[in-house]
């Protein structure tokens, strides 16, 4: 039984109990959110040792970090090292986006190595195994690959089910066309075979597989805008409408479902995008990729993504996919992963605070108290990144515990406390 089916039948699962406790909600309240599909708990029955997290409003904003091999780098040890970085910084999920090497073996190692939620994009594996002969790929081959991911214990999969033939002509006015790897592959398949998207035509079979393993569907945005110029255009909105239809079909099939969103979106359009998704996709949790609010900051896209992510989360997104400084430039290394997770955690914490999540309010107040009392160790422990502030402190030229080298003896805090 999936988490959704259990909730529909009025059962309380151990995963629901853990999520409710950690989110400071009553178990009954949490169960009704799962039943309505407003919260998902991606927890594949075969993922041993998983720590379950809930995704959706009004829960804490969650963060995902992507890892994975590329044709230029198939070093599994490096990907496992990235996982350690991701875990140490408190992200809740990671996606294995590997496209080179023994993908089944890599995925197995990834799932075994972490208690975080693990997501994948199974169509990548289909693509890498049949790069030279796209036309020969049958819908059954795609479903067989998806089933393999389910059997291995993948908690959520990105499936670009909403990209339809009728949306392809709408791309003509775009600067960037299709920037989603999965979306691009499916569009090619649909053109070469002159057939409708197999993930759309075989959606019922896809749901059967997902239900068997309680693998949450993350309905991907194959037509997400890859430039602020292309944001909120007809192609993007066409796909979003279709995803809304599929949300209802997945829920009816007892399958947990969330929806993925843009992409590159100027700040002035972010709120509108979040509201449209909530309305058209029936309150399904929104998993946003950034969004990037400008295109012109290569090398700093983690900051751009955090700005968009914080704003998106404040307006309804529940799950932030990180962006690293290496975005658009190269495969991220462990230090890029580190900066990306920290930026996304800052966005998530900012939104949690603004949304009044009790644990976030407590943490920020506690941090202020530690700062006020010059409790440096307490500050480091509460910091998004516990390492960097300690290094700064250790290398500073302060002369007293009750000041830092910014103002020295003119420390405003110290002077004010002495005046009392
Ligand atoms: S020295 Fe200045 S910056 Fe440093 S803690 Fe005191 S008031 Fe803050």
Model description:
The longest helix has 21 residues, at 334-354. Helix 5 links the parallel strand 2 and strand 3. The protein is α/β, with parallel strands linked by helices and 420 residues long. The chain has an 8-stranded parallel beta barrel, surrounded by 7 helices. The mean pLDDT is 96. The protein contains 18 helices and 8 strands. Iron/sulfur cluster binds next to helix 18. Iron/sulfur cluster is lined by residues 403-404, 406-407, 411-413.
**What order do the SSEs take from the amino end to the carboxyl end, as H and E?**
HHHEHEHEHHEHHHEHEHEHEHHHHH
By DSSP (H or I, 4+ residues per run), the number of helices equals 18
**Residue-averaged pLDDT:** 96
List the bound ligands: iron/sulfur cluster
How much helical structure, as a percent, in the residues? 40-55%
Q: What's the number of extended β-strand segments?
A: 8
Could you say which overall geometry the principal axes of the C-alpha atoms support? globular
- Span from first to last CA? 62 Å
Strand percentage, roughly?
A: 5-15%
Kindly provide the radius of gyration, computed on alpha-carbon positions and rounded to a whole number of angstroms: 22 Å
Give the CATH architecture of the largest domain: Alpha-Beta Barrel
């Amino acid at each position: 039984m999936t988490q959704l089916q259990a909730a529909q039948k009025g059962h309380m699962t151990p995963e629901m109990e853990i999520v409710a406790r950690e989110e400071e909600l009553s178990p009954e309240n949490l169960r009704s959110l799962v039943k309505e599909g407003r919260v998902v708990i991606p927890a594949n029955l075969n993922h041993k040792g998983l720590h379950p997290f809930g995704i959706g409003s009004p829960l804490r904003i969650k963060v995902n970090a992507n890892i994975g091999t590329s044709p230029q780098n198939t070093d599994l040890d490096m990907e496992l090292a990235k996982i350690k970085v991701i875990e140490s910084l408190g992200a809740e999920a990671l996606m294995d986006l590997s496209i080179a090497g023994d993908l089944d073996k890599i995925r197995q190692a990834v799932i075994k190595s972490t208690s975080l939620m693990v997501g994948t994009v199974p169509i990548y594996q289909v693509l890498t195994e049949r790069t030279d002969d796209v036309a020969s790929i049958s819908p059954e081959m795609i479903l067989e690959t998806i089933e393999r991911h389910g059997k291995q214990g993948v908690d959520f999969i990105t499936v670009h089910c909403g990209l339809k033939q009728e949306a392809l002509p709408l791309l003509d006015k775009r600067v960037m066309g299709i920037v989603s790897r999965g979306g691009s592959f499916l569009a090619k398949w649909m053109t070469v075979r002159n057939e409708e998207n197999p993930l759309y035509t075989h959606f019922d079979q896809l749901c059967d597989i997902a239900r068997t393993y309680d693998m949450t569907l993350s309905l991907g945005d194959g037509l997400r805008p890859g430039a602020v110029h292309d944001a909120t255009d007809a192609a993007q909105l066409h796909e979003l409408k279709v995803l809304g239809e599929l949300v209802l079909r997945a829920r009816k099939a007892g399958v947990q479902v969330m929806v993925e969103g843009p992409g590159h979106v100027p700040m002035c359009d972010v709120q509108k995008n979040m509201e449209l998704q909530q309305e058209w996709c029936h309150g399904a949790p929104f998993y946003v990729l950034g969004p990037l609010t400008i295109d012109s900051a290569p090398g700093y896209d983690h900051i751009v993504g955090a700005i968009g992510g914080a704003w998106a989360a404040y307006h309804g997104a529940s799950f932030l996919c990180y962006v690293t400084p290496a975005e658009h430039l190269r495969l991220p290394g462990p230090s890029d992963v580190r900066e990306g997770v920290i930026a996304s955690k800052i966005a998530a914490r900012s939104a949690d605070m603004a949304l009044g999540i009790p644990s976030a309010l407590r943490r920020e107040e506690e941090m202020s108290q530690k700062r006020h009392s010059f409790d440096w160790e307490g500050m480091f422990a509460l910091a998004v990144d516990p390492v960097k502030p300690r290094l700064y402190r250790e290398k500073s030229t302060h002369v007293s515990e009750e000041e830092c080298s910014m103002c020295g003896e003119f420390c405003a805090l110290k002077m004010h406390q002495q005046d009392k």
